[in-house]
Every structure is written in C-alpha cells, then in structure tokens.
C-alpha cells in the first residue's frame, strides 16, 4: 500500500523548481542578447518595437522567431560571396554596358530621368534590348520555353520560386534531362520554401544525366542558415546566353488553369533578346554562386542582327542583400515620375504607408492611377489584408479594379506612354523589403501600348470598387481585414 510518506522528498521539488528558474533565466538571457543586434539593424520603429515586445514577453520563443525571420544575416553573407565571385571572374558591375544607351533619349526627357534614377538606385548600368515579346498566360510561356530548351546548344539556366510535383513540373524536368544528356550545361536553382514537399531526390535523374541542381538554401542546418522570411522569388531562365525569360510565372499546372480549386489563371512572362541577356546571365551566375559556391562562366550574346530596334532597358535586381530596400525606392521614384498614368497589375497588393502616400500624391497631381488586383486568390488572407487599404486610396481618386473571372497574378506597370515594368515583384511589403525579386524596366512605346491594352481588357472583366458601397460592407469583413492588416508586413 502507498503511504503519505512515499511522496518524493521536498528537495526534489526544490531541484525541479530551481531547474525551471534556471532554464527561464537562460531563455531570458538569450532574448536580451538579441536586443543589441535588433537595435543595430535600424529597422522601422514599428518593426523594432514589435520584435522588442516579442523578445521580452516570450523569452526563448521570441528569440527563436527573431533568429528565424527577424535577422538579415543573408545580407552580409551574400555580399561577401558576390564580392568574391566578381573578384574571381574579374567582373565589375558592368558586363555588357551598351555605349551611350541613353543618348537616344533627349537629356531633358521623362524617360531619361527615370533611367538615371533607377540606374543610381540599382547600381547597374542601363542596357539595351532587341526583342521584347510579351507571353500572356502559361500556354504561351511554356510553349516558347519548350522551344528554347529543345534548341539549346550550350547552356540552360533556370531559376524559379515554385516547381510543382505535377505534370508540368515532370514535363519540364524531362526536357532538362534530355538537354543534359545531349551535352547541354543545365543548371536548375529553386527556392526551398517555395518548393515545400519536394526533396532533392526528385531531381536526382537530372543530376545523373549530367545536369546540376541546387536549392537557394533557405533552410540549411549544416551551414546554420534559417531564412524562413527571406525568399528567392525571382523567375529567370537564360538559354545559350541568347534568350531570357523574366516575369511572374513558375512551373505548375495552376498556370495552365488546370487547378479546379483556383480556376483560370492570368499571368505574364516576357521573352527578351539582345545584349541585356548577358546582364540577366550575370544575375543567375551570382545567385548560383551564392547557393552553391561554384562559379558559372558567363556566356556572350550571339552576334545576330535584330529585327527590332534596340531600346533602353534596366534590369531591376533587388533583394534584402542590397542596401536601403531598392525595390521600394524604385517604386517611389516611378510613382513620383509619372505625369499621365500609373497603372499597376499586382498579383498581391498590400502597400505600406509610404507607398500608399505616394499613390495619393500622384492622384493629387492629376496622374491617372489605377490598380488591378484579383478578387480571388490562392492566398485569400492577402486579398482581405489588401482591402484594408482601399478606402484611403479611393478617397484620393485611385481607381481599384478586382478581377473576378479567375486569378490575376500578373505583375506589370504601365507608366505614361513609353515605359513599362514587368517582373516578379508584387506591390507589397514582402516584395519591397524581404524577397529577392527580378524585373525589367523597358523604354518601348509598343510594349507600353500592348500592356495598356491588356490592362484595359482585364479591367473590363473586373469589378471597379465604388467607395460608397465599399464602406457599407459587413462589420465582420472590416474587422477581419483590419486584423490581417497588422500582419501585412509578413504576409
């Protein structure tokens, strides 16, 4: 029989209690140790205060979250690797700078001023592009890329955020394997978080065929790399240093409208030819070197006569490895420069206060500001969070259209009559501050006009938000939107 005196002695309870106190003190010390690092980052005051409260109120857990998503260690490590890469390759920031690119534009022109500004922000010279071909939706993009891969003779470089384990992913993996077997140098670089559910084993056949594969290593315990919050969102394919693809599309059946839960999918990729391809090859080479530590020889663009006139183009390579959030500053510069119109198709629209104010000021100057977003999304929280910003914009004259016939995932900007931006960047804080993004700014009236026609066509299938009726939406919708707004910097 058990007796009362069979309970553990009091000193056992004392030991357990003291152990808990000691563990709590250790966790608290770890949290306090993170505070100087947090302060020295000079984040936005709201972000700094939020992390400070997390560290103090949730010792241990707060520190773990901070180390996972709050630091910018990738910035220093990536910069060291880029400098090492350029020293080894004998590269300056310029690779194929076209002489007097901007000489074709009047020195006092709108476009000349925009390129000078973006050139200064990015730190890359302005290039030239020969052919700019807009590929609307998955069918056109995949067809063109299939053809380029089949015709490849020397190299195929593919960088993407998402690669699905479905019929689209399987088909393109087979195409890359076939190219590698015929002697083409194939490299595939994917974001680890964007491809959750896939393992390197899935790409083993490519490696066995002579191709190369790497994650961007968001999660890399062996090298103490846990960048849950910093993602390589770039979509870039360079074939034979001759043709490049940039835009918003990944590899998956949803981009063909084959996912019944999402329905039709509207997206955009652009095919580029000419000297700018070498610049884009450099972007891939630097990303590959960061991920693998292995060098990638930079190819030369084939000397072929272009059927199109050469036009100025700026490669907008941005990310948390660059100082002072270049994508944010570029968008601010473009909004400020707009004189006639500033039309944005944004896959995800969650502006921060700075971007919100810039759009309002543009409207006050008389600029025609329009936003095209998706009423439906594979991430419904993003749509709801974005709506919390509508009223302030509508009040100042911004016109907002929600596309209702499917998913609108395109990412492009129509600026006045000559300029256009196409790429991977959304109009949200994540793209402005946290993601590695890639876009191109092109001076070509024909491209501007084509995108303007597409924008007009899409808004014809959209619902324009009326402020009066919007303010009458149910209180529970407004509460959900305002709550999600608190988390918008991380969505």
Word description of this protein:
The protein is α/β, with parallel strands linked by helices and 491 residues long. Strands 1-12-21-19-18-13-15-16-22 form a 9-stranded mixed beta sheet, with helices on both faces. It has a 7-stranded mixed beta sheet with strand order 2-11-9-8-3-4-5, sandwiched between helices. It contains 17 helices and 22 strands. Helix 12 crosses helix 17. The longest helix is centred in the N-terminal third of the chain and has 31 residues. About 3% of the residues have low confidence. It folds into 3 domains: 63 residues, no CATH class; 212 residues, Endonuclease Chain A (Endonuclease, Chain A, 2-Layer Sandwich), CATH 3.30.870; 165 residues, Endonuclease, Chain A.
Strands across the major sheet, in which order? 1-12-21-19-18-13-15-16-22
- Main β sheet profile: 9 strands, mixed
Question: What is the class of the largest domain in the CATH system?
Answer: Alpha Beta
Q: Look at the structure and name the CATH superfamily of the largest domain.
A: Endonuclease Chain A
Radius of gyration: 25 Å
Helix count from the secondary structure assignment:
17
**What spatial form do the alpha-carbon principal axes imply?**
globular
Structural class: alpha/beta
N- and C-termini, Cα separation: 59 Å
CATH architectural group of the largest domain = 2-Layer Sandwich
Total count of strands: 22
Tell me the quaternary state. Answer: single chain
The proportion of residues forming helix, as a percent range, comes to 40-55%
Give the tally of structural domains: 3
Unreliable segments (pLDDT under 50, ≥5 consecutive)?
Answer: 90-99, 220-226
Question: What value does the average pLDDT take?
Answer: 82
At the third CATH level, what is the topology name of the largest domain?
Answer: Endonuclease, Chain A
- β content, as a range? 15-25%
């Amino acid at each position: 029989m058990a007796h009362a005196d069979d309970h553990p002695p009091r000193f056992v309870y004392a030991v357990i209690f003291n152990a808990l106190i000691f563990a709590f003190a250790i966790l608290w010390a770890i949290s306090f140790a993170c505070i100087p690092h947090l302060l020295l980052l000079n984040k936005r005051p709201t972000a700094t205060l939020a992390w400070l409260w997390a560290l103090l109120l949730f010792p241990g857990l707060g520190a773990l979250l901070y180390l996972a998503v709050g630091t910018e260690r990738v910035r220093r490590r990536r910069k060291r690797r880029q400098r090492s890469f350029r020293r080894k390759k004998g590269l300056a920031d310029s690779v194929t700078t076209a002489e007097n690119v901007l000489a074709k534009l009047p020195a006092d022109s709108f476009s000349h001023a925009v390129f000078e500004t973006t050139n200064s922000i990015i730190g890359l010279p302005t290039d030239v592009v020969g052919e700019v071909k807009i590929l609307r939706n998955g069918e056109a993009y995949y067809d063109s890329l299939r053809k380029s891969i089949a015709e490849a003779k020397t190299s195929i470089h593919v960088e993407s955020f998402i690669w699905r384990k479905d019929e689209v992913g399987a088909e393109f993996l087979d195409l890359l394997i076939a190219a590698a077997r015929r002697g083409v140098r194939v490299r595939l670089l994917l974001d680890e978080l964007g491809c959750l559910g896939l393992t390197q084993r899935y790409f083993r056949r490519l490696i066995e065929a002579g191709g190369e594969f790497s994650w961007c290593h968001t999660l890399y315990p062996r090298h103490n790399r846990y960048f849950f919050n910093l993602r390589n969102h770039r979509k870039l394919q360079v074939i034979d240093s001759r043709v490049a693809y940039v835009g918003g599309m990944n590899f998956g059946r949803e981009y063909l409208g084959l996912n019944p839960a999402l329905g039709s999918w509207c997206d955009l990729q652009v095919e580029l030819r000419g000297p700018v391809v070498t610049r884009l090859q450099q972007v891939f080479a630097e990303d590959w070197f960061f991920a693998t530590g292995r060098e990638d020889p930079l190819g030369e663009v084939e000397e072929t006569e272009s059927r199109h006139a050469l036009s100025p183009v700026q490669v907008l390579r941005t990310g948390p490895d660059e100082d002072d959030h270049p994508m944010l500053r570029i968008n601010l510069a473009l909004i400020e420069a707009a004189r006639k119109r500033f039309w944005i198709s944004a896959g995800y629209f969650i502006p921060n206060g700075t971007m919100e104010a810039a759009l309002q000021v543009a409207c006050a100057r008389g600029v025609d500001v329009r936003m095209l977003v998706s009423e439906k999304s594979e991430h419904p929280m993003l749509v709801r969070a974005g709506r919390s910003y509508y009223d302030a914009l509508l009040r100042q004259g911004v016109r907002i259209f929600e596309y209702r016939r499917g998913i609108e995932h395109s990412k492009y900007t129509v600026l006045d009559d000559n300029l256009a931006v196409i790429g991977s960047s959304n109009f949200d804080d994540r793209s402005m501050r946290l993601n590695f993004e890639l876009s191109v700014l092109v001076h070509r009236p024909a491209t501007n006009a084509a995108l303007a026609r597409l924008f007009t066509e899409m808004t014809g299938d959209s619902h324009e938000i009326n402020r009066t009726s919007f303010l009458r939406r149910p209180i529970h919708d407004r509460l959900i939107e305002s709550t999600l707004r608190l988390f918008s910097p991380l969505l």
